[in-house]
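Quick one:
INPUT:
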């Protein structure tokens, strides 16, 4: 995490090289202040491609560079359907979930769906030089943390993230609804602010009321 940013890796290279650092980043460094900027930087290429490709196509058409238009379209398709894009979107959500301040600032991108086709795996696993024998596994595999994630992983956990967000939305709406109901009527059914009975001896005002099968106890007059 200290070495990767100073390397000055360009946006398009992040799609092929960022997996070396980010594959398990949300599990290994969930509380680090450097994790979230690294994920945002890795996701920047996909937003840039989505925003700039239409303009590049128009420019190529106006200049008569028709051969380049197919290259722009292929690049945009590889970026939008990149397996790394799906993986980093999941990890950004995992990172933001326990941190409300970060979740509020997060601009959620699109998660993968099971029906998505032609997913591109643009990762380069051969960039790390391997001097091992051909009968041995490549050196790059020796420092992988767990199994290699891929298209099925991204699609599966994208579905999980959608379920989590759905349940969180339901839970939040119920809490807000109960809070609003309590503020409008803070006393239980059949009770009001003047319906209090004071006890003697202890000096602590205690109200005891029974509504159907529920007992309500209220301490009143406390500072």
């Amino acid at each position: 995490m200290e070495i990767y940013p100073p390397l000055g890796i360009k946006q398009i290279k992040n799609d092929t090289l960022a997996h070396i650092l980010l594959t398990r980043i949300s599990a290994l460094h969930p509380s680090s202040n450097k994790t979230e900027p690294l994920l945002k930087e890795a996701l920047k290429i996909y937003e840039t491609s989505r925003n700039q490709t239409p303009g590049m196509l128009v420019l190529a058409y106006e200049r008569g560079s028709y051969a380049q238009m197919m290259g722009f379209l292929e690049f945009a398709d590889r970026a939008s359907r990149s397996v790394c894009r799906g993986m980093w979107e999941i990890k950004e959500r995992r990172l933001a979930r326990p941190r409300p301040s970060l979740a509020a600032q997060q601009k959620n991108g699109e998660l993968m769906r099971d029906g998505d086709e032609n997913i591109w795996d643009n990762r380069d696993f051969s960039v790390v030089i391997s001097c091992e024998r051909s009968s041995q596994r490549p050196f790059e595999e020796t420092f992988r943390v767990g199994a290699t994630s891929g298209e099925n992983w991204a699609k599966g956990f994208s579905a999980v993230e959608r379920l989590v967000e759905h349940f969180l939305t339901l839970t939040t709406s119920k809490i807000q609804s109960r809070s609003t109901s309590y503020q409008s009527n803070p006393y239980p059914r059949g009770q009001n602010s003047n319906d209090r009975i004071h006890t003697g001896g202890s000096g602590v005002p205690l109200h005891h009321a029974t509504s159907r099968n529920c007992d309500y106890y209220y301490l009143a007059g406390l500072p």
